Amino acid sequence: MQISPYSKPEFNPYGENDSEDVAAPGPWPAPVATAPLLARLQLPGSKSLTNRELVLAALANGPSTLRWPLHSRDSALMVQALKTLNTEIKEVPGDGAYGPDLRITPAELEGGVSIDCGLAGTVMRFMPPVAALALGPVAFDGDEYARHRPMRPVIDALRALGVDVNDDGRGALPFSLYGMGAVEGGELSIDASASSQFVSGLLLAAPRFTRGLTLRHTGERLPSLPHIDMTIACLRARGVTVDSPEPGVWVVAPGEIAAIDLTIEPDLSNAAPFLAAAIVAGGTVTIQGWPDVTTQVGADLETLLPQFGATISRGDGDLTIDGGRGIRGGASIPGLDLDLSRGGELAPAIIALAALADSPSRIVGIGHLRGHETDRLAALAAEINGLGGAVSELDDGLAIDPRPLHGGLWKSYDDHRMATAGAIIGLAVEGVQIDGIESTGKTLPQFPKLWHALWGPSLT
């Protein structure tokens, strides 16, 4: 079946007036698969690329247009943050399936404002270096849990660059800075062990620093390196000179950021639950527009999911997964030992599959997920165990010993990837109810609609 993407004349990324896009109040009954799949769908644009390109477009030497951008809570927060600093961002007609294009016109950045980061790591980590280029005070805050997310490397880095920051010693939100209209730049060392976003945020603003930036990571490990590669690729595409003379060191030359028009790739990490669905239900799922070359970590699904016994094929710009009979059809899938340090955002979907496997799994390299939208390691262990599973926390990951699961309430903790992990398990286990499915609006507001449409008459 071909899944029709959500669109309407007056675009609304949250779908408040569209009953098909919004789950009813209360826990969301996770659909159970009763037949193999034959589905083909198109996903909205990448959150990681959309928010990086919004920042670069706001700092560029002229107007830029983003075609097929993501429209979600995270991207809306970034748009509003940049508008607050005096950037002009307008919706313009386009041929994207999920909303209008965005036209970004840079202007002199102005302070004297407050920025709401919500729960968006890209906003809270990317925007402070940008705000330091404005003239005047800028205050930052966000959702309640956002105040628990690591921010000290950003705050310490800005201070080392000569920016006046007031955080009352918290090393976290809320805090404020006083922009002087310019940042000198130069050499800087930070520990980005908790998030690659600390590096990306500084690199994105660095071309506008008077002396550019030589940035050195001092920690023992650096998670999610593909996201830094993505940042570098975005910078280079706009004419910025970026070098990495050795691992953990990046040199950005000062200079203009070129204004360009570009098309945002579909979000490959958001493809994870839909592709995992084929392994649970059996049958095939095709994702349209899968790029041949990309810096998105979601591309790793092409090699990760076959380890669960699925078959991946490519053709005509699409990617198709064949789950065979699927778990619901009587197939078994093996447990795995995986290091997901390259792409921790894929871990919730992989761990959901591991909980349905027929042998134990160890998923490591994801200790940094304790500082994401929620403590994802503790949350995944608690929710799987609450359905009868046996998951234990490791220093750097989770050990999953599969057990027969039963229905029950699955808490999302306001975390979009927790919600979609619960939906994957709910395909195989009757009676799973997800508390907070609306959290998927962070990066994929259409998830409930797409998830239901994926199954059509095969749903119970």
Please provide a brief summary of the model.
This protein is α/β, with parallel strands linked by helices and 460 residues long.
Question: Main attributes?
Answer:
460 residues, alpha/beta, UDP-n-acetylglucosamine1-carboxyvinyl-transferase, Chain, 2 domains, four-stranded mixed β-sheet, 12 helices, 23 strands, 26% helix, globular, disordered N terminus
Description:
This protein is of the alpha/beta class and 460 residues long. It folds into two domains: 28-44 and 266-458, Enolpyruvate transferase domain (UDP-n-acetylglucosamine1-carboxyvinyl-transferase, Chain, Alpha-beta prism); 47-248, Alpha-beta prism (UDP-n-acetylglucosamine1-carboxyvinyl-transferase, Chain), CATH 3.65.10.10. 26% of the residues lie in helices and 22% in strands. It is built from twelve helices and 23 strands. The strands form six sheets. It has a four-stranded mixed β-sheet with strand order 2-15-17-16, covered by helices on one side. The chain has a four-stranded mixed β-sheet with strand order 4-5-3-14. A hairpin with a 2-residue loop joins strand 12 (242-246) and strand 13 (249-252). The radius of gyration is 22 Å and the shape is globular. Mean pLDDT is 93; it is low at 1-23.
